């Protein structure tokens, strides 16, 4: 793990896109996670926003977010297919190598879990010519995929090199899962690791809004020991991919972007220390 | 779906049966045509309304598309010549297209295709198209759009047994597994064991078509290729199969075709590769004998 593999999700910060990009760069991040809506909603338009991103020195880690994709039946599936294709085009426009897809939370009458495998395989194939990988993520309010274990089971069954699993420390720890759940996952099948700590010790994630304001930067929360153990475990598995800080709460939303980015940079250093602490004895041995 | 249990259908889901034609987009159609003529192809037909030309040798059809509208859509406009389409013969083009859509293919990009005939196609690597052509049709697809120069339809190959061996596809680093799954799931290709090599270039993953009539070679950049050249994903080179490579090289050298002959690459009995002939176009010759029906000649 090093600074190069660390990014901040632009959703952590308030303000115009250019200000958030500049804040991330000034704070020492080399990469950022983008949201398609930030490009579409830019006051100077989509093209100008995409150009801003391409011309910044920051590497784009990926693009958020495809929702309610898998397991839709009939016209709803065709509709979602159009949406996901358009998002793949956005990925190409901003050189995003990864499209994040979160498990479907669609209403029951539209949802057919038996289609999920074929739908994700279809998306994995669609994304190959565009040069974009697909990262699938469980969410606690997902209709049939609500934890890492079930998400990995689905990714495993799809069995396509272009589809991987996205881990989120916040959801994982809130779900109360033992770290051993991760042991079955080959590190190369993990597309991205998102990190956040907790502002409260125990709560039940019931939906996006409920979970939103509980996140703080790793090291700043009440469960920092659990977050550190999570990061060390992922590192121990052999994961060498990107980490993305994914934090949003009421406090950060009222601060200028540069202030939040600085807190993020401090958190990045904290996470590195947690992993280095475990690695140091090995490094010393090698030095002898 | 009773068909899903049929092993033949599983192994060759589109009923694939060889390559119908290879299309080059070219800014220098006459010069590229001259190169094709040098290696034994003959211009046999011109498109009725566009700057599109059909060349043939033995069972191999090559289309040069110099249509300005098609050229204007290239993502890499600095390219002078580019393999822009591979047309695959399938049992039923519309069924094959529908299956590709179900498994995750993009519909054909909107550009002025070589054909006005409605041939379904899917998005391939880079700007390219993979066309799906009915091989059981009872007419030549070229008759619809092309005017033949003479009554001659057959062109005897100057290099005996010449056929399409396959296409080399450049891919970005660490993308082999993704493309292997793509070709396996959409079209039924099978990756051959890593130690399998044809020709003289040692790198890359070789995918065999489900009809075992042609191959794709996926090549990731090796060494400094990423820094020395502008590397991007594309169909990079056409490879011909010939039973006797040294014999073919002798015939072609006598016609002035230059072959790469240096410390790293030189013609031998396994294969040979031409030097860049017109704006970086080159061809590979691989020792390979055509499946029987291909030798019967073009439709």
How would you describe this protein?
The complex is a heterodimer of chains A (288) and B (299). Chain A has eleven helices and ten strands. Chain A is of the alpha/beta class and 288 residues long. Chain A has a single domain, classed as TIM Barrel, CATH 3.20.20. Chain A has an eight-stranded parallel barrel with strand order 1-2-3-4-5-6-7-10, surrounded by five helices. The longest helix of chain A is centred in the last third of the chain and has 31 residues, at 257-287. The two termini of chain A are 22 Å apart. The model of chain A is unreliable at 280-288 (pLDDT under 50). Chain B is α+β, with helices and mostly antiparallel strands and 299 residues long. Chain B has two domains: 2-148, 2,3-Dihydroxybiphenyl 1,2-Dioxygenase, domain 1, CATH 3.10.180; 163-296, 2,3-Dihydroxybiphenyl 1,2-Dioxygenase, domain 1, CATH 3.10.180. Chain B has helices spanning 7-11, 29-38, 68-72, 93-103, 141-145, 176-187, 225-228, 245-254; strands at residues 19-26, 42-47, 52-57, 60-65, 81-90, 121-123, 129-134, 146-148, 163-170, 190-191, 205-208, 215-219, 234-242, 271-273, 283-287. In chain B, a hairpin with a 4-residue loop joins strand 2 (42-47) and strand 3 (52-57). The longest helix of chain B is centred in the middle third of the chain and has 12 residues, at 176-187. Chain B is globular, with a radius of gyration of 18 Å. Chain B starts with 6 loop residues before the first helix and ends in a 12-residue tail after the last strand.
Annotated CATH topology of chain A: TIM Barrel
> Can you tell me the CATH architecture of the largest domain in chain B?
Roll
Question: Could you say which overall geometry of chain B the principal axes of the C-alpha atoms support?
Answer: globular
CATH superfamily of the largest domain in chain B: 2,3-Dihydroxybiphenyl 1,2-Dioxygenase, domain 1
The N- and C-terminal alpha carbons of chain A lie at a distance of 22 Å
* CATH class call of chain A: Alpha Beta
H and E string of chain A: EHEHHEHEHEHEHEEHEHEHH
The CATH class of the largest domain in chain B: Alpha Beta
Number of strands of chain A: 10
Largest interface: A-B, 15 and 20 residues
Instruction: Encode the helix/strand succession of chain B as letters.
Output: HEHEEEHEHEEHEEHEEEHEHEE
Which structural class do the helices and strands of chain B define? Answer: alpha+beta
Report strand order across the widest sheet of chain B: 6-7-5-1-4-3-2-8
Mean of the pLDDT scores of chain B? 88
The assembly state of the depicted protein chains is heterodimer
């Amino acid at each position: 793990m090093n600074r190069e593999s660390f990014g901040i999700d632009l959703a952590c910060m308030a303000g115009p896109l250019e200000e958030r990009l500049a804040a991330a760069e000034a704070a020492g991040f080399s990469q950022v996670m983008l949201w398609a809506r930030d490009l579409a909603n830019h006051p100077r338009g989509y093209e100008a926003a995409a150009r801003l991103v391409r011309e910044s020195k920051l590497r784009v880690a990926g693009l958020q977010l495809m929702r309610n994709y898998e397991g839709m039946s009939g016209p709803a599936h065709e509709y979602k297919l159009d949406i996901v294709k358009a998002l793949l085009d956005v990925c190409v426009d901003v050189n995003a190598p990864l499209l994040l897809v979160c498990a479907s939370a669609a209403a029951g009458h539209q949802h057919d879990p038996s289609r999920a495998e074929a739908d994700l395989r279809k998306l994995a194939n669609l994304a190959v010519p565009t040069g974009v990988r697909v990262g699938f993520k469980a969410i606690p309010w997902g209709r049939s995929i609500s934890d890492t274990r079930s998400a990995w089971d689905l990714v495993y069954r799809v069995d396509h090199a272009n589809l991987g699993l996205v881990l989120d420390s916040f959801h994982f720890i809130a779900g109360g899962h033992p770290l051993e759940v991760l042991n079955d996952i080959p590190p190369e099948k993990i597309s991205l690791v998102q990190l956040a700590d907790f502002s409260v010790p125990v709560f039940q994630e019931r939906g996006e809004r409920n979970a939103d304001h509980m996140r703080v930067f790793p090291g700043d929360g009440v469960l920092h020991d659990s977050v550190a153990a999570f990061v060390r475990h992922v590192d121990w598995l052999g994961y060498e991919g990107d980490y993305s800080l994914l934090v949003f709460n009421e406090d950060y939303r009222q601060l200028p972007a540069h202030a939040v980015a600085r807190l993020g940079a401090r958190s990045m250093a904290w996470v590195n220390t947690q992993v280095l602490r475990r690695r140091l004895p090995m490094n010393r041995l090698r030095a002898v | 779906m009773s068909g899903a249990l049929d092993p033949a259908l599983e192994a060759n889901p589109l009923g694939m049966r060889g390559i119908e034609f290879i299309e080059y987009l070219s800014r220098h159609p006459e010069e590229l045509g001259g190169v094709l003529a040098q290696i034994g192809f003959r211009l046999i037909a011109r498109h009725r309304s566009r700057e599109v030309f059909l060349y043939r040798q033995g069972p191999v059809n090559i289309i040069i598309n110099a249509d300005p509208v098609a050229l204007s859509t290239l993502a890499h406009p600095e390219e002078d010549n580019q393999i822009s389409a591979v047309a695959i013969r399938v049992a039923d083009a519309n069924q094959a297209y529908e299956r590709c859509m179900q498994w995750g293919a993009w519909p054909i990009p909107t550009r002025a295709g070589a054909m006005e005939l409605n041939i379904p196609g899917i998005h391939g690597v880079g700007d390219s198209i993979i066309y799906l052509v009915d091989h059981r049709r009872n007419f030549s697809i070229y008759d619809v759009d092309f005017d033949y120069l003479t009554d001659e339809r057959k062109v005897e190959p100057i290099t005996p047994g010449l056929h399409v061996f396959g296409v080399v596809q450049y891919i970005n680093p660490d993308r082999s597994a993704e493309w292997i799954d793509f070709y396996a799931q959409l079209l039924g290709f099978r990756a051959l064991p890593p130690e399998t090599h044809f020709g003289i270039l040692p790198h890359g993953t070789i995918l065999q078509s489900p009809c075992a009539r042609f191959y794709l070679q996926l090549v990731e950049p090796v060494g400094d290729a990423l820094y020395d050249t502008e590397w991007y994903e594309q169909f990079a080179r056409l490879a011909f199969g010939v039973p006797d490579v040294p014999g073919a090289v002798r015939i072609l050298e006598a016609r002035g075709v230059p072959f790469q002959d240096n410390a790293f690459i030189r013609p031998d009995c396994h294969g040979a590769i031409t030097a860049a002939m017109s704006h970086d176009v080159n061809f590979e010759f691989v020792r390979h004998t055509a499946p029987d029906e291909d030798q019967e000649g073009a439709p």
